[in-house]
């Protein structure tokens, strides 16, 4: 006689178990149903957010009606692109960044292309004075700023074990990524509360979604932004102010040192287009429990959904070995350049 198929044996055991322990079986079935329905709802919302639904319109924040957008770190990379695209959408633009000459260039580019009003202020957020922040407060006092993009950020010159990082680099990262974000936000928020309208976007990073060895202070500074956003978004929601963290994987900018875009690594232009068309949506961050956070670019969103659902632990080891490899290559390049320079001097 042929043996019964495994599925038949399994069904028989399950039936016997169900008859013997009906309450326990019902509990397991309901739990299974709850987990499945929860996942299906989460997956559906992820698909809708990432591929179907449009985000909140910028018109809600006064685009084309005299409202201002303030962008920090706006002379290069993602910040410059936010300034250009928000000007194109009809906002007057206030840019705050480090280099006065670059600020002048970006300001005149925006004025020429989009005919909106542009103001700028140079602040080195790594070495700000109290006067810098008071003069920024005076500059924005008469302006109806309804959009703030907390974009300015600093990472490490190269991946480095924590014990070997120059303490000055750590201080700069804390001042730029954390202090500047809180100071600028605190200056802008009272006006938004008065006008009962505002959008605050902060540039988050996968370096906080996956704790990132060899970039430890940067990774931790971005984790700060995550908690800051979640708490502040709850505080400011009753005032009509949306606070949102943009969870971001790589983008081709001077900071990432990646020049060529790929499906996973967009240019600043396509990244910012996504960010501005998906305002308020969660994407891959949906159901992750990370409040006030969204992942606007579609491939980043898919990656976030996978990491959030598969668990991020094994990614830490992968990121660590990648950073060790990047460090080795960068150090070899430095050695080659130093040797070349020495040769040049000897000739
Ligand atoms: N690029 C990525 O792959 C990536 C991934 C995840 C998250 N992010 C986040 O996205 C944000 C923008 O990054 P990005 O790649 O666009 O950077 P970026 O290309 O290096 O541009 C940085 C901008 O910030 C300004 N800046 C730098 N240090 C400053 C300081 N001390 N004071 C004032 N302004 C300063 C720069 O001004 P100068 O022109 O004067 O230098 C520049 O305008 C950052 O918060 C970053 O952490 C980026």
From TrEMBL:
Belongs to the short-chain dehydrogenases/reductases (SDR) family. It is a single-pass membrane protein. It is found in: Endoplasmic reticulum membrane. Pfam families: adh_short (PF00106). PANTHER family: HYDROXYSTEROID DEHYDROGENASE-LIKE PROTEIN 1, VERY-LONG-CHAIN 3-OXOOACYL-COA REDUCTASE. InterPro entries: 3_ketoreductase_fungal, NAD(P)-bd_dom_sf, Sc_DH/Rdtase_CS, SDR_fam. The keyword Transmembrane helix applies. Component of the microsomal membrane bound fatty acid elongation system, which produces the 26-carbon very long-chain fatty acids (VLCFA) from palmitate. Catalyzes the reduction of the 3-ketoacyl-CoA intermediate that is formed in each cycle of fatty acid elongation. VLCFAs serve as precursors for ceramide and sphingolipids. It catalyses: a very-long-chain (3R)-3-hydroxyacyl-CoA + NADP(+) = a very-long-chain 3-oxoacyl-CoA + NADPH + H(+). This is Very-long-chain 3-oxoacyl-CoA reductase. GO terms for biological process: fatty acid elongation. Gene3D superfamilies: NAD(P)-binding Rossmann-like Domain. One of its GO terms (cellular component) is endoplasmic reticulum membrane. The chain crosses the membrane at residues 21-41. SUPFAM superfamilies: NAD(P)-binding Rossmann-fold domains. One of its GO terms (molecular function) is very-long-chain 3-oxoacyl-CoA reductase activity. Keywords: Endoplasmic reticulum, Fatty acid biosynthesis, Fatty acid metabolism, Lipid biosynthesis, Lipid metabolism, Membrane, NADP, Oxidoreductase, Transmembrane, Transmembrane helix. PROSITE patterns: ADH_SHORT. Pathway: Lipid metabolism; fatty acid biosynthesis. It is an enzyme of class 1 (oxidoreductase).
